[in-house]
Amino acid sequence: MKLATFTHNGQTRIGVVDGGAIVDLAAAAPNLPTDMVGFLAAGDAAMTAAKEAAGNATTKIPLADVTLEAPILKPSKVLAIGLNYADHVAESKMETPQHQIWFTKSPTSIAGPAADVLDPSVSDLTDYEAELCFVIGKRARHVPRDRAHEVIAGYFCGNDVSVRDWQLRTPQFTIGKSFDTHAPIGPWITTSDEVGDPHDLDIKCYVNGDLRQNSNTKHLIFDCFAQVEELTKAMTLEPGDVVFSGTPSGVGGAMDPMQFLKAGDKVRVEIEKLGAIENAMVAEEAETIIG
Fold first, then answer.
1. What is the pLDDT of residue 117?
2. 94, pLDDT greater than 90
3. Helices marked H in 64-161 — which ranges?
4. What pLDDT is recorded for position 43?
5. Considering the entire predicted model, what is its pTM?
6. Class of domain 2-68
7. Who's near 229: CB < 8 A, 6+ residues apart?
8. Which option is the CATH number for 78-283: 3.40.50.1820, 3.90.850.10, 3.30.470.10, 3.40.190.10?
9. Residues 6+ apart with CB under 8 A from 89
């Protein structure tokens, strides 16, 4: 299944994508939660009900008539791993990590698959990072690698937008990775059963139509299942938690000369079987907001 969060006629809810339409689960299965985190927390029974409802043609809405939102609007955690493709390690002139390198992105960095991404007023060094993302579907702690697939609900495209000077001016990456809108994800969650092996998917990133990143998830140093194993040794993962699994080579900051993003640029991330997201960079207006 392809599970999406969408807005139609001013109301935001969840549905199942079927070709060029979306089955409105609020109409087809009104007993289900209408937000994705609640739906995932409802477990296998909710998944089964959604599959059954997906055949309800009377509740379909053309995709052209809806706005696709971030599949998870307000994750409690957004976790991201750094230096997780060998070619990206090499272009970053770093050593291959012996342990997984984790940082967080703020939940307010989440943005939709076609939403505008802010070009920060405080930096000219904003970069793109195409990434395979996954979402946790079941509460998880101390999960061994061979059972990690049981807690992953599905996968989607992500762009770990990074403000390089803010990222690298301290030993901690978090603030440079957490600017508002700097985690566009989507276009929907493709459930694990439909994806099959998540570690053999082509991943590409285009900037203004120019292919910048071109790799395959088989090149992950620590794969998605190893990531779940490591994270759950330290913390409880909960339904709706979002994980960014790392980026391959080709980022703008490693090019010669460096090529950072600017207002007007369009960044497209494509992953085999999962679809694509495309976001335009827009200049941020540094407006003071209090309250």
1. 98
2. no
3. 86-91
4. 96
5. 0.96
6. mainly beta
7. 143, 144, 145, 148
8. 3.90.850.10
9. 83, 95, 96, 97, 221
